[in-house]
């Protein structure tokens, strides 16, 4: 009897040892891989299960490529599982992507809406599925602000005002009419609507500053060149080009030079973004003034994702810091530009 009891005790002890070792190794592996700060075996759900569904506008410009890289690099650094989709600048592709993220039950959805309108239904589907949504880069015009947690991006109206103010200062004493042509961004997009609004708000007070033509170049180099060619054919005197982004300005520069004119001299050029190629053109004197639009939104987006997952309060609107560059300032800033 005594030896049976003894063996029973030994086996029980062995069982207890076995179970506690298993817990430790599980706790240790969780702690090591996901979140060292979480303490022994107590990884918070947020650290090990965050999946972020991100729907990107497309790959239409240097700005967009820099924005995509910032988001992908930041998600990797945060240890999030990023599901990334490129909509090729089509709203229907973005809506499909958002619905797919809802089906996959991702933790958080983020996207840069290609245009302002037409999102209420799919955003309501995300809300009904209990998946928080974060807007980056561009806004939506949904009146129901509860459909998304925050909007992280530039103030495009202010960008337009900065462009208009530089022009108004350049021509404040002009006695001649100043003929301006405008290359608008993607029709219906927040940056196109707002950059035009801010620009007109400032130049509208000077009757000599006349916008004689305004057309979308869809934020691309190719379209910017094509539309500028048409402007040059239709108008014998163009003094200024206002382009809503560098890629359209760079396409327009090709058209201006092909017409035997000097960009930055015969036709003054104002642009927005301040991506490397645009800053190089400014340093070369082909673009006279660039309004920066910061694409490096990745870090702010990941902070917002973590705050949402942790149930913390976040600002409804997070505005990115940005500046402006004359040709000389662009020359100075170029060597240290991140994008
Ligand atoms: C602005 C962004 C715009 C850039 C363009 O935040 O949405 O889209 O200005 C890009 O270069 O295509």
Automatic annotation (TrEMBL):
InterPro entries: Peripla_BP_I (IPR028082), SBP_2_dom (IPR025997)
Ranges of residues in domain Periplasmic binding protein: 53-313
Family stated for the protein in its record: Belongs to the bacterial solute-binding protein 2 family.
Subcellular location: Cell envelope
Top-rank lineage group of the source organism: Bacteria
Protein name: ABC transporter substrate-binding protein
Keywords: Signal, Sugar transport, Transport
Residues of the signal peptide: 1-22
GO molecular function, one term: carbohydrate binding
Main subcellular location: other
An annotated GO cellular component: cell envelope
């Amino acid at each position: 009897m005594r030896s049976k009891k003894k063996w029973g005790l030994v086996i029980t002890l062995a069982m207890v040892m076995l179970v506690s070792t298993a817990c430790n190794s599980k706790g240790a592996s969780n702690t090591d891989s996901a979140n060292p700060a979480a303490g022994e075996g107590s990884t918070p759900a947020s650290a090990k299960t965050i999946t972020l569904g991100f729907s990107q506008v497309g790959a239409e410009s240097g700005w967009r490529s820099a924005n995509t890289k910032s988001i992908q690099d930041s998600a990797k650094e945060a240890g999030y599982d990023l599901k990334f989709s490129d909509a090729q600048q089509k709203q229907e592709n973005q809506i499909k992507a958002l619905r797919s993220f809802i089906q996959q039950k991702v933790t958080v959805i983020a996207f840069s809406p290609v245009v302002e309108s037409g999102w209420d239904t799919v955003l309501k589907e995300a809300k009904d599925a209990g998946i928080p949504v974060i807007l980056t880069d561009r806004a939506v015009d949904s009146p129901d602000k509860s459909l998304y947690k925050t909007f992280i991006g530039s103030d495009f109206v202010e960008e337009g005002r900065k462009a208009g103010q530089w022009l108004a200062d350049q021509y404040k004493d002009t006695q001649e009419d100043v003929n301006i042509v405008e290359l608008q961004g993607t029709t219906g997009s927040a940056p196109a609507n707002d950059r035009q609004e801010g620009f007109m708000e400032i130049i509208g007070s000077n009757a000599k500053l006349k916008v004689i033509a305004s057309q979308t170049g869809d934020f691309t180099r190719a379209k910017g060149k094509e539309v500028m060619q048409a402007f040059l054919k239709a108008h014998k005197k163009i003094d200024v080009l206002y382009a809503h982004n560098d890629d359209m300005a760079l396409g327009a520069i090709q058209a201006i030079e092909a017409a035997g004119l000097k960009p930055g001299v015969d036709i003054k050029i104002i642009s927005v973004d301040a991506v490397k190629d645009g800053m190089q053109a400014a340093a070369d004197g082909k673009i006279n003034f660039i309004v920066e639009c910061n694409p490096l939104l990745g870090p702010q987006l990941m902070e917002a994702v973590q705050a949402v997952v942790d149930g913390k309060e976040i600002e409804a609107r997070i505005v990115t810091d940005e500046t402006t560059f004359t040709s000389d300032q662009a020359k100075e800033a170029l060597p240290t530009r991140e994008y």
